[in-house]
Amino acid sequence: MDEAIAACEQAVDMVPTSPPWYERLLVGVGPADVICGDFVPAVAAKAIACGAQLIVVAPYEGCRGSLVTALATSAGVPVLVTRSSTTTNTIVAATDLREAGYPVIRCAADLATELRRSLLIVHSTDRYAPPTLRGELATVGRSFGAGGDVVTMEAHDPADAIIGQARLHDADMIVIGTHRVPQIGVATDSISQSVVCRAHRSVMVTPLRVRSSTEVSGADRGSRQRAGRRAP
């Protein structure tokens, strides 16, 4: 019980140091409930039961990105890891472009419009990115009602590249997606997990539709084929 009380006090203490937009996301929040049990299933069950649209968690020492991505996929709603910020300028949409409909860009664009921020779309991959991709992604961002810039790059460590772009543009939030494979039953996105742990600003992890093992292997084959079509 003492540990539960300490965790509640930490969450309350985080509110005054959170970014200004944090309060706007929490408009209409009702009374607090105390729940017990394993963190991910207990919180996910509560979120589903009350029809939550967002789960907010405070960062902590040794924060495990796997817990955050598992919570997002289990509850089926975005999870926001909130960290203090000195800016109110930019929201980064970090996308691997493996999902139809650009759900991460859409989520980030909606937030950018609601919170009056600029949108920065970042596509970082360890494979080849065609030169036309930047213009295509800029068009996607505008179609969702948010103007901004686009960065595409090849990087050995995509998570490090995403965080680096967030620092370079002094962004106050990164939006990134996570998948879950049914046969495994857990989120498998190491990039999302790494960004959650290492980012210096808030990170919103949004769950993407569940992908079958066949789709996962097919996406990997497609990525390898694109890697083989490098520009001269």
What does this structure look like?
The chain has 232 residues and is of the alpha/beta class. It folds into two domains: 2-81, no CATH class; 90-227, Rossmann fold (3-Layer(aba) Sandwich). It is 43% helix and 16% strand. It contains nine helices and seven strands. It has helices spanning 2-14, 20-25, 39-49, 65-75, 103-115, 133-143, 158-168, 190-198, 213-227; strands spanning 55-57, 79-81, 90-94, 118-125, 148-154, 173-178, 202-207. The chain has a seven-stranded mixed beta sheet, sandwiched between helices. Helix 6 links the parallel strand 4 (118-125) and strand 5 (148-154). Helix 3 runs parallel beside helix 4 and helix 4 packs across helix 8. The longest helix is centred in the C-terminal third of the chain and has 15 residues, at 213-227. It is globular and about 50 Å long. The termini are far apart.
Quick recap of the structure?
The chain has helices at residues 2-14, 20-25, 39-49, 65-75, 103-115, 133-143, 158-168, 190-198, 213-227; strands at residues 55-57, 79-81, 90-94, 118-125, 148-154, 173-178, 202-207. By secondary structure, the protein is of the alpha/beta class. The protein has 2 domains: 2-81, no CATH class; 90-227, 3-Layer(aba) Sandwich (Rossmann fold).
